[in-house]
Amino acid sequence: MVIEGLDGAGKRTLADGLTTALGAKGASVASLAFPRYGKSVHADLVREALHRGHGDLADSVYGMAMLYALDRSGAADEIRALRSAHDVVLLDRYVASNAAYAAARLRQDAAGEVVKWVWELEVDRFGLPRPDAHLLLRVAPAVAAERAERRAETETGRERDAFETDDGLQRRCAAVYDELAASGWLAPWHVLDGVAGVDLEALATTLLGQ
């Protein structure tokens, strides 16, 4: 199960709450978050580039997307092992993040060439495990930005990066996420209200029954 959404949408909070709700129903749950900062050289290059390291690397849409994809490719065996050992594996961001942000940066929609390229790279070429479902935590871009800014002020090491501070990018990304969800891209999507709150018990029941 993949949790998707804008920076500041509350994905980590949802993952923690859903883990507790699934566990209460007797499910064994494992989780993994992307990018795998501190664990993957590709993820660390991403973080450095987003804070203006490595020259103009962050300006390259395809270059950054490749680093994100390589980070996930390096975790493919771990994901498969977790799926074998647990009832549910929760991933905080996955292939759809790459598709949404790359398309938004290039001002393309979900039917654009870069979304197709991400699928061909990560799913067809790298052979990443396909998810069973996406959970899109939907919030207005302004709300997500406010949360991300507050998080940066209160949590050490969570300074906003070049993508998080680009309000136009976040708005375009939200639109692409909606299009991906509407088309059922890669796996079925469940759209959740990130402002009104999520009924975690009901969501856990739905996910375990699908």
Automatic annotation (TrEMBL):
Swiss-Prot/TrEMBL keywords: ATP-binding, Kinase, Nucleotide biosynthesis, Nucleotide-binding, Transferase
A Pfam family it matches: Thymidylate_kin
Protein name: Thymidylate kinase
Keyword DNA-binding part of the UniProt annotation: no
EC number annotated for this UniProt entry: 2.7.4.9
Family per record: Belongs to the thymidylate kinase family.
GO MF term set: kinase activity
Keyword set includes Nucleotide-binding: yes
InterPro entries linked: P-loop_NTPase, Thymidylate_kin-like_dom, Thymidylate_kin_CS
Segments forming domain Thymidylate kinase-like: 3-182
